[in-house]
Amino acid sequence: IVLAGGWGGVVLHEAIGHALEADIAGDGVLAGPRPVGVRLAPPAVTLVDDPTASGRRGSARFDDEGVPTTRTLLIDAGVRVAVLADRLSAARWGVPVTASGRRQDYRCSPQTRMSNLCLLPGDTPPEDLFHGIAHGLFVRRPGGGQYDPRSGAFSVDLVEAYAIEDGRVTGPVRGGRLAGTGPAMLQGIRGVGDAMEWDAGHGYCEKNGQIVPVGTAMPPIRIDNLVVEPGG
Q: To pair with 51 at 20 to 30 A between CA atoms, which of 82, 97, 118, 126?
């Protein structure tokens, strides 16, 4: 799979972002929020959550618990170094508060939520991501997705995708979805592009019935071990 930059980051949002929210990580496939220093991905992968990015959908000066926002480094050169936490999950699990308490509106209680999830650029020219792929898929635009914290499984619908044949993008592919587990997906990253792109500014995330705006940014990436499931 070659996944386009920008909104392609919704795949990372579903595959690993939720697993790094402390209220989910406590019972999820990553075995709790405390263990850090564990390698989750190749060294080219550095992942941050950045509510301080100017003008993005998940940005704010304070979270919904009144904590000043800051950029949180989650995965540093492939190694897990932190999780996102609101006040409640931070107290429960003994981790730092990361100004990640967000709620849909005044009627709702804050939950630990992502803001703008960003994969930082690597050093691979985008055209090189396609080299050596005999049969693959170029995902230009993914759709909505879902994540199961108990198994770590996720899926993301395909809105616009094209076949890759002998390293070249050819005809369009109709329907389908990407599927896999977050940890396996991270281990399967084989190349990270050298220029980060932001999404077009339309992202939402639903968690426990609450919907909040979110952003995502990343360069194009190559992933070698996702499943492409058929669809209508």
A: 126
Over residues 132-164, the pLDDT tens digits come to: 999 999 999 999 899 988 788 999 999 999 999
Helix (H, G, I), strand (E, B) or coil at 66: coil
Which residue type does 157 have? D
Q: What DSSP assignment string belongs to 174-195?
A: -S-EEEEEHHHHHHTEEEEBSS
Report how far residue 69's alpha carbon sits from residue 98's, in angstroms, rounded to the nearest whole number: 7
CB atoms within 10 A of CB 89: 25
Q: How open is the CA angle 2-207-19, to the nearest 5 degrees?
A: 55
d(CA 6, CA 187): 21
Classify residue 55 by burial, with Cβ atoms within 10 Å: 0-12, 13-18, 19+.
exposed
Find out whether 2 and 130 touch, Cβ atoms under 8 Å. Answer: yes
Burial class from Cβ neighbours inside 10 Å (0-12, 13-18, 19+) for residue 134 reads exposed
pTM above 0.90, yes or no: yes
